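WARN no homologs supplied; continuing
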Amino acid sequence: MKTKRHAIILKVITSQNVETQEELANILSTQGFSVTQATVSRDIKELRLIKVLTSEGRYKYATVEKAESDLQERFIRLFANCVISVTSASNLIVVKTMAGSASVAGEAIDSLKWTEIAGSIAGDNTIFVAVRDGKNVQELVKRFQKMMK
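OK structure emitted
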């Protein structure tokens, strides 16, 4: 019963904006589940749901993975808007940004969690990206350049 309820909760929060535990309990009731607020609260905790801000300025429940995906998409848009160029030097990738934008672009790079990247350092308008293996540098440069479009 709990597994089915969890599956319904996940389906519901991906298809509609659910703002409160009471609202979620009411939706579950229409699906044939008689639940208390305490049960819904436990379900939310077990499913690791969080509240995220919608584009309308309201909050809704979402999975951590969905929230991270949305955040990553925002970072990629910011990356595309502030990066001027991407070049390589040995096993480093040098990313040039508009003044004051390197930390934002660096956060975007870090959010990608590409295993080929050992780490990055951001200044004011330049980011150095250390690549674990030099043979991956050109492929990563191409991926970064594709993100700029």
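Residues 78 and 104 are 7 Å apart (CA to CA).
OK
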